[in-house]
């Protein structure tokens, strides 16, 4: 009886449509008069059968487009090589649904640890081929925002100094995109917003709250959700797919729609 109930809940939580979580963040150096901008944050796709075939990702893309975001930011881990998958996909097959994203300004991405373990160059090239701008320890200005994309911290590919090279003046209009949130303490103090994934918010949670794992060297500090510390906001998504074990339990998949605006 208990095993059946666990299985039913786990499958429900694994296959549910992503919860859309929302946040508003003020970027202190965003130009006065700039209209509010929306950023859809997605991460940890881990495209593989049985739980995240490309067809399911295509349905999630349609869900994102219905939100009409100005930017889509993808925080990595597009594929997986976990042993318990019933089918693995190469980058072209796994990423193909993401070509359907339709933000107003751009789709931007960083790579995650699973992408580096598979083949970072292949993943980056395929993302670029379908129109996604990949940032690896570099910055870009697209529309009103400056976006800095970091290499994956978990596998040691991040370089904060190189990422901020050439970014002059206040960092108050910068959005940092990183696979892991563990880079946050190393960022300049006036970076107002960091978007990340990697932790899956534990993926498997206790019914009474919390999780047995955080996937962060800082424990619960950056484990999940919105974290406001000393003028910095970090948003960590639970992601879409699964890692190691092909199921979630009381930790549903989610995406964030973050509205950024200049000071009132």
Quick overview of this protein structure:
This protein has 264 residues and is of the alpha/beta class. It has 5 helices and 14 strands.
What can you tell me about this protein's structure?
The protein is of the alpha/beta class and about 260 residues long. About 20% of the residues lie in helices and about 25% in strands. It has helices at about 1-15, 55-65, 90-95, 115-130, 160-165, and strands at about 20-25, 35-40, 50, 70-75, 85-90, 105-110, 135, 140, 145-150, 175, 195, 225-230, 230-235, 255-260. β9 (about 145-150), α5 and β10 (about 175) form a beta-alpha-beta unit. The longest helix is centred in the middle third of the chain and has 17 residues, at about 115-130. It is globular and about 55 Å long. The N and C termini lie far apart (about 55 Å).
